[in-house]
């Protein structure tokens, strides 16, 4: 994963959102369109989100210290979760408020709709540039992990570029909704359509915020590594000549491209203590070499026949546990 690429994606998205947010606000005030004001709120939410994502990138790069021996990688998930919350509060709630106020309030006259069309066209062009950058970044990350785009969006451990991609996709859809609201208002003379478009934008932002919040909450709580990595680590542990059986294997993402591996292994009873120590060191080094994402490895020698340990593993994974 390219840190420079993620930073560029976030900075570009922030600059674009700030510029078009000002344009949307001016257009909303000139036309009186609730959909345009909702889109202005959307852009403000996006801009604030990019600031939080930049904070996430900067904080997560701090090296490990005594108080945080595994580093600050999870800070990226915390700030990205806050970005999802702000996306909902400052974007979705404002858009719904504007929409319902227009639908159930007094009818409003539309003025200078051509201003809204021009701003929406400019905004769509600028958002497309940001979306293209975010899409390229996410596709590069997916290719580097050997995954399809859908798999990477589901299993990827770096929320920054994915957040920008989701935001920009929502922004493009929101612009189309705003265009429809302004157009139908002009054609029918009813401001209800403008309000409906604003509510639809709010629902769209709420759905995106939910998806982002759920993904970041899972990462922050402590999600296991990708199934492919777990299977590969298990196979390499089992293939070590000193190992009779892998009794238990636990992994956890401790940051973007950083995985903690904890393994309970039944070693050959014939090897001595010194050979056992050397085997643990060698196996850990081999795992880190073979898988750059593996940051920390802990190997605990255990007997596979221990009933308490077996019960604990079965309780966690079910009858499929080995």
UniProtKB/TrEMBL annotation:
Species per Swiss-Prot/TrEMBL record: Actinokineospora guangxiensis
Protein name from the UniProt record: Cation diffusion facilitator family transporter
A Pfam family assignment: Cation_efflux
Keyword Ribonucleoprotein: no
Superkingdom, taxonomy of origin: Bacteria
Cation efflux protein transmembrane domain span: 11-220
TM ranges: 7-30, 77-95, 115-132, 164-184, 196-213
Compartments reported by the entry: Membrane
Main subcellular location of this protein, as a coarse class: membrane
Membrane topology: Multi-pass membrane protein
Keyword vocabulary terms for this entry: Membrane, Transmembrane, Transmembrane helix, Transport
């Amino acid at each position: 994963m390219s840190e420079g690429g993620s930073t560029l994606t976030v900075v570009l998205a922030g600059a674009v959102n700030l510029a078009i947010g000002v344009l949307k606000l001016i257009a909303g005030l000139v036309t009186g369109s609730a959909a345009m004001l909702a889109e202005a709120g959307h852009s403000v939410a996006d801009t604030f989100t990019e600031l939080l994502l930049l904070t996430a990138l900067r904080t997560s790069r701090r090296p490990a210290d005594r108080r945080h021996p595994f580093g600050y990688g999870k800070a990226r998930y915390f700030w990205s979760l806050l970005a999802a919350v702000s996306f909902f509060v400052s974007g979705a709630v404002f858009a719904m408020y504007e929409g319902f106020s227009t639908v159930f309030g007094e009818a409003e006259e539309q003025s200078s709709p051509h201003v809204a069309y021009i701003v929406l066209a400019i905004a769509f062009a600028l958002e497309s540039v940001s979306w293209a950058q975010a899409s390229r970044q996410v596709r590069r990350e997916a290719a580097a992990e050997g995954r399809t785009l859908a798999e990477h969006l589901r299993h990827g451990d770096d929320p920054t570029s994915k957040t920008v991609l989701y935001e920009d996709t929502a922004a493009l859809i929101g612009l189309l909704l705003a265009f429809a609201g302004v157009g139908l208002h002009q054609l029918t003379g009813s401001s209800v359509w403008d309000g409906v478009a604003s509510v639809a934008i709010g629902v769209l932002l709420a759905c995106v915020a939910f998806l982002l919040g759920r993904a970041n909450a899972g990462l922050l709580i402590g999600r296991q590594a990708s199934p492919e990595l777990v299977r590969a680590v298990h196979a390499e542990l089992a293939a070590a000549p000193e190992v009779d059986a892998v009794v238990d294997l636990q992994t956890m993402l401790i940051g973007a491209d950083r995985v903690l591996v904890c393994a309970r292994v039944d070693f050959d009873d014939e090897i001595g203590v010194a050979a056992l120590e050397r085997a643990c060191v060698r196996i850990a080094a081999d795992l880190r070499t073979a898988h750059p994402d593996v940051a920390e490895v802990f190997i605990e020698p255990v007997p596979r026949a221990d009933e308490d340990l077996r019960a604990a593993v079965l309780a966690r994974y079910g009858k499929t546990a080995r």
